[in-house]
């Protein structure tokens, strides 16, 4: 017998959940699947419509989502064999990029081709869905053209179907950053992007190959932009064709911000400097007609670093907590110098981008969660190391750590903040979580914290 908490699973799940073919995990008690057990609008495969009839028009295949993106370019350090496959319902390979030609995607060179096949095969051995994501920050340049006309959409749909067939994919994820809104400098943008994207997704869903596969999108904290560049007030038509959107609630603060702030805030309604959070993103998407049970919360297994003077970081009187850590000031200002992140953060020399624009030299400053242990900020259990500064910000529900000798502060996520996000996912009735990136975690500290808080249980049978 399997249990969620202390309740036998049979009492909680609709029978359809037993028929879900690709699941080695059992959903949390408050998931869409569990809710649908008592909801007359549930369809045979566990999909749920919201009250006014929006929601999926197809058969959803996911009762809940515990997913991660796998960054192919980190395979030398983190081969796909290292993924904790048994803890995910799906995993998404990043990235295939857009190209000028809707008949082709980029980045699937011989190395990525072989790696993607290995990734899919491992996923299937583990009863996990394998998806491919198209786009990314620098890979979104040509989405606008690819979906820009009837002819291009038809070709682009055929390209997607070929990818699904060629790699035996269980679905596709569209990481367009962003339709109708500025992203990377090289992106082509049109006021018609979101409308064209929707038409493309509708066409894609109609193909028999994609009818029963996952189609998802990775999105900003705000709903897709309309012709005026502002968030659309009604995105319910997207919910009719997408299984879910994963809200990328990270990079909310970073070196581009005025002060140090949370990378991935859970809440900002209590923060005078609030500029986006899981709470406000879920509100924005549901206010625009996107059902909560089709929202997946994007969570970050990394943090951003800032160079912060010790007087700004620690204040006049630095207080030592019982564990020997120094208490930190909230939202200190930081110096222009971007510190180096963890050992994967390579210095980029000044250069030119793919569309010929100058790019500055420097580090990204990103610390993966494991990198904070590597760098001496945290101990192996993920707790602040002795002598470091530490603050858990109650509003954003995220931690900060500070090394007084190097004067580097990092805003990041730990087990406590991932558990808070897992609880929020259940309370808000979201579909699940998506972690960027699989390789960022350290001994599954983060993954176990969010899954545990959601009440997800593993079944290895
Ligand atoms: C959804 O599932 C039902 C029952 O299995 C099936 O009859 C129907 O054709 C499916 N719809 C689509 C769009 O695949
Ligand atoms: C369609 O794709 C072609 C490239 O094959 C591109 O040149 C053209 O601008 C696209 N059309 C639209 C309307 O985006
Ligand atoms: C947007 O779509 C409308 C209607 O299809 C069309 O008339 C207009 O030219 C398009 N605008 C751009 C910039 O493509
Ligand atoms: C999708 O799956 C349902 C249920 O298994 C099946 O009835 C339907 O024919 C499938 N649709 C397509 C287009 O394969
Ligand atoms: C977010 O903050 C507001 C204002 O303090 C509070 O009412 C709300 O409960 C918080 N939500 C969560 C999920 O923490
Ligand atoms: C119903 O759908 C509209 C968009 O068509 C949306 O604006 C509204 O919030 C939805 N209402 C509910 C109760 O979901």
Structure explained in plain terms:
- The chain is α/β, with parallel strands linked by helices.
- It folds into 2 domains: 3-248, Alpha-Beta Barrel (TIM Barrel); 305-411, no CATH class.
- Helix content is 25%, strand content 19%.
- The protein has 13 helices and 21 strands.
- The protein has helices spanning 16-19, 32-36, 110-125, 143-146, 150-167, 193-206, 208-211, 236-239, 278-287, 310-314, 369-374, 415-427, 445-454; strands at residues 3-4, 7-8, 25-26, 65-71, 90-98, 105-106, 129-135, 171-175, 214-219, 244-247, 295-300, 302-307, 326-327, 351-352, 358-359, 366-368, 389-393, 398-403, 408-411, 432-436, 457-458.
- It has an 8-stranded parallel β-barrel, surrounded by 4 helices. Strands 13-17-18-19-12-16 form a 6-stranded mixed beta sheet. It has a two-stranded antiparallel ribbon with strand order 1-2.
- Strand 1 (3-4) and strand 2 (7-8) form a beta hairpin.
- One 2-acetamido-2-deoxy-beta-D-glucopyranose binds at residues 100-102, 145, 148-149, 152.
- Pfam families: Glyco_hydro_18 (PF00704).
């Amino acid at each position: 017998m399997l249990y969620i908490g202390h309740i036998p699973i049979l009492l909680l799940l609709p029978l359809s959940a037993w028929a879900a073919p690709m699941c080695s995990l059992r959903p949390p008690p408050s998931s869409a699947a569990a809710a649908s057990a008592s909801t007359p609008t549930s369809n045979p495969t566990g999909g749920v419509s919201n009250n006014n009839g929006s929601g999926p028009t197809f058969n959803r295949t996911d009762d809940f989502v515990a997913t991660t993106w796998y960054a192919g370019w980190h395979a030398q350090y983190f081969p796909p064999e290292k993924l904790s496959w048994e803890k995910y319902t799906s995993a998404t390979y990043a990235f295939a990029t857009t190209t000028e030609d809707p008949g082709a995607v980029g980045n699937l060179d011989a190395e990525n081709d072989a790696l993607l096949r290995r990734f899919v095969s491992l996923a299937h051995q583990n009863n996990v869905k394998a998806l491919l994501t198209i786009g990314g920050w620098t890979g979104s340049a040509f989405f606008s053209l690819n979906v820009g006309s009837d002819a291009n959409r038809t070709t682009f749909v055929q390209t997607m179907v070929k990818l699904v067939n060629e790699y035996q994919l269980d679905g596709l994820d569209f990481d367009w950053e962003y339709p109708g809104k500025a992203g990377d400098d090289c992106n082509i943008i049109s006021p018609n992007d979101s409308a064209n994207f929707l038409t493309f997704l509708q066409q894609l869903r109609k193909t028999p190959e994609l009818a029963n596969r996952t189609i998802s999108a990775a999105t900003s904290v705000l709903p897709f932009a309309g012709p005026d560049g502002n968030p659309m007030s009604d995105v319910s038509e997207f919910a009719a064709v997408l299984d879910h959107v994963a809200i990328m609630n990270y990079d909310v603060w970073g070196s581009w911000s005025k002060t140090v702030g949370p990378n991935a805030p859970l809440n900002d309604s209590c923060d005078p400097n609030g500029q986006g959070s899981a709470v406000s993103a879920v509100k924005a998407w549901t206010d625009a007609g996107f059902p909560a049970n089709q929202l997946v919360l994007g969570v970050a297994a990394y943090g951003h670093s800032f160079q912060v003077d010790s007087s700004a970081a620690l204040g006049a009187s630095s207080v030592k907590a019982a564990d020997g850590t120094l208490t930190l000031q909230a939202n200190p200002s930081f110096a222009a110098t971007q510190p180096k992140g963890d050992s994967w953060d390579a210095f980029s020399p000044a250069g030119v981008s793919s569309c010929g624009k100058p790019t500055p030299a420097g580090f990204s400053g990103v610390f993966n969660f494991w990198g904070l242990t590597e760098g001496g900020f945290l101990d192996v259990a993920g707790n602040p190391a002795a002598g470091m500064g530490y603050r858990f910000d109650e509003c954003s529900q995220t931690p900060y750590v500070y090394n007084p000798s190097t004067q580097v502060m990092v805003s990041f996520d730990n087990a406590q903040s991932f558990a808070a996000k897992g609880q929020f996912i259940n309370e808000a009735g979201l579909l699940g979580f998506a972690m960027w990136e699989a390789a960022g975690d350290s001994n599954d500290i983060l993954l176990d914290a969010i899954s545990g808080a959601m009440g997800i249980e593993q079944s290895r049978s």
